[in-house]
Design brief:
Organism: Phocaeicola acetigenes
Protein name: ABC transporter ATP-binding protein
Shape: globular
GO molecular function: ATP binding
Keywords: ATP-binding, Nucleotide-binding, Transport
Strand order of the largest sheet: 5-6-7-3-8-9
Low-confidence stretches: none
Bound molecules: adenosine-5'-triphosphate
CATH class of the domain at 1-65 and 171-221: Alpha Beta
Order of helices and strands: EEEHEEHHHEHEHEEH
Pfam families: ABC_tran
Oligomer: single chain
CATH topology of the domain at 1-65 and 171-221: Rossmann fold
Distance between the termini: 41 Å
Largest sheet: 6 strands, mixed
Amino acid sequence: MELIYIKELSKSYGKTRVLDKLSVSYESGKIYGLVGENGAGKTTLFNCIMGVTDYDGEIRKSSKMVVGYMPAESFFYSLITGKEYLEFCIKAKGKKMDAKAIDSLNKVFQLPLERFASDYSTGMKKKLALMSLLLQENDLYILDEPFNGVDLYGCIQLKRIIRELKDKGKTVIISSHLINTLHELCDEIDFLDAHAIRKRYIQASIDEIEQDILNRENSNM
Ligand SMILES: Nc1ncnc2c1ncn2[C@@H]1O[C@H](COP(=O)(O)OP(=O)(O)OP(=O)(O)O)[C@@H](O)[C@H]1O
């Protein structure tokens, strides 16, 4: 089933064109990767999908779908504990607080939930943001650079969690610069380049993707 259909999406900041007639679609139950150089427009694409920025073109989303978005950098108010943050996020989605679910999930994440979230390390903040999404039970998870700053143990756990989401029929879109990790996890990988999705890789080898990226770099020289 098609969850998101994007046609000719364009977005500029002032005179800087970031996305230009980008078309792509996402089906339910799959894990999608999004790669592209710094500034290619990955976060901008996510912001357009989430409707937090204006754009030209068409984005059609399944009406019943609940989306959870983990930005590359989460913001936490000071004087809010990890636990209070989770409570806030769960309530914001109209769900009931389930202390057992939090405890059970925190056996994996091992966060000091009684401490102020603003004092967490980068990786701990990522884990807290992800924990809040998982507790909300969304249909689609958009994760912007979820592995950045997360330790080895956390990355292994995160990969498992993402696979479990897929097993439950959820859809996940992940942007990352870690091509090996995306290759391990994703059903399909999109290469965002020159303001649009240049290529979608399905069951492609790492070599093929890397070669295309290198060729792209060389073609600019
Ligand atoms: N609010 C904004 N105002 C002006 N320019 C912006 C804004 N947000 C993003 N940009 C510009 O849009 C372009 C795309 O940025 P974006 O953050 O979407 O890229 P990205 O692919 O996510 O990059 P990275 O891999 O470095 O995270 C960049 O040139 C950036 O400077």
